[in-house]
Write a structure and sequence with these properties.
Layout: E1 19-21, E2 36-41, E3 43-49, E4 58-63, E5 66-68, E6 72-75, E7 83-88
Antiparallel strand pairs: 1-7, 2-5, 2-7, 3-4, 3-6
Length: about 90
């Protein structure tokens, strides 16, 4: 397969290059900061953004199924009801 964008510099506006399942945890940061969050089953997402301290958790209510441009370092187990989460980076 030919990749016409192989030598392009990735920016926050460009598509993700990888993704991994997210297991919500109150103690562990994500392996990689996300460029976006994919929500497979709608619900609340309790999270800490990449620029916030660990005390800066936010609950995003009723996050619909889809791809959301969220730069996260942690998805908390407590308060998260959305499932089938993927971190895109």
């Amino acid at each position: 397969m030919k990749d016409l964008f192989k030598n392009s510099y990735p920016s926050l506006e460009s598509p993700g290059h990888n993704c991994s399942p997210i297991t919500a945890s109150d103690s562990q940061n994500l392996r990689y900061a996300t460029r976006a969050l994919y929500v497979g089953v709608a619900g609340d997402v309790a999270c800490i953004f990449i620029g916030d301290s660990d005390s800066g958790d936010v609950i995003i209510k009723n996050l619909a199924v889809g791809l959301w441009p969220l730069r996260l370092k942690k998805v908390l187990d407590t308060g998260t009801t959305a499932t089938s989460l993927l971190g895109v980076y």
